[in-house]
Amino acid sequence: MKSTFSVSQRKMVMLYDSKFYGKIAEEIQNSECVDVFNKYQYISADERILALHSAEFNKFVQDENLNIIRKKFYASVKTTANYDGIGTLMAAKSRSIEYYFDIPMLKLPKKLRKIPRDFRETFPRTYSIETRNAILCRIYGELTSIKEERLKAHWRQNQQYAKILLEYLDYYWKTPDEDRVITGEHMKRLKENLVHFIPAQDNYN
Fold first, then answer.
1. How are beta strands 2-6 and 88-93 bridged, if at all?
2. How far is Cα 142 from Cα 136, in angstroms, rounded to an integer?
3. What is the spatial distance between Cα 145 and Cα 123, in angstroms, rounded to a whole number?
4. Residue 193 near residue 141 (C-beta atoms within 8 A)
5. SS3 label, residue 59
6. Cα–Cα distance measured from residue 38 to residue 45, given in angstroms and rounded to the nearest whole number
7. Cα distances (angstroms) measured from residue 135 to each of 15, 19, 71, 141, 161
8. What is the pLDDT of residues 38-54, one digit of tens each?
9. C-alpha angle 107/135/151, rounded to 5°?
10. Cα dist. 9→45, 49, 73 in Å?
11. Calpha distance 162→204 (Å, rounded)
12. Rounded to an integer, what is the distance from CA 202 to the centroid of its chain?
């Protein structure tokens, strides 16, 4: 929900969702904040990485954790080519960088802070009944094929935090009242939904 672009040694342009993060300060006075922004720049930098001092540069280049994340990010970048009869258009596409590091000046809404990092994920900003139903399936879907107790416990936690997530998203999306009603037939379909549990991959937070 944010993008940053460095425009000088001391200034950057930041695009962010004010409904999600609220009003933020116009000046960054927290050195930890600067360090985190630099990490994100390093992860996504395409052609050049600049630093005032070599020690600062080496701190990022020699950080094994950052390099793993950087490699993972670039593995997701794809280039496509289209020919319209006149010229060839090259387009680079990639997923957004995951929220690997907390940014002190961009605080998650209080309700979402109740969700542990391992259970956080991104969802579309624009409302759709399909996305909401997917979250409802996660909340009410019954495990039928999972026997291992550790995975069952993890799924139950996931259901608990999905309820918190949906409560926030309904506020954010301004979900229509009629879409919030769960009929008996709808609940039956949700409970019968076959849940395929896939353990989360290791992250680097």
1. unpaired
2. 11
3. 26
4. yes
5. helix
6. 10
7. 28, 21, 30, 10, 11
8. 898 888 887 777 787 88
9. 90
10. 16, 12, 25
11. 22
12. 15
Ranges of beta strands (E only) in the chain are 2-6, 12-16, 78-83, 88-93
Residue 145 carries which DSSP code? S
pTM for the structure as a whole: 0.69
Q: What six digits make up the tokens of 169?
A: 């998203």
**What's the pLDDT tens digit per position in 81-125?**
555 566 655 555 555 677 788 888 888 899 999 999 888 888 888
Structure tokens at 122: 């991104």
Q: Which amino acid is at 165?
A: L
Q: Hey, what are 197's tokens?
A: 């549990």
CA distance 104 to 31: 10
Structure tokens that stand for 108 in this block: 């998650």
Copy the structure tokens of residue 76. Answer: 């997701």
Cα-trace Rg, the chain = 21
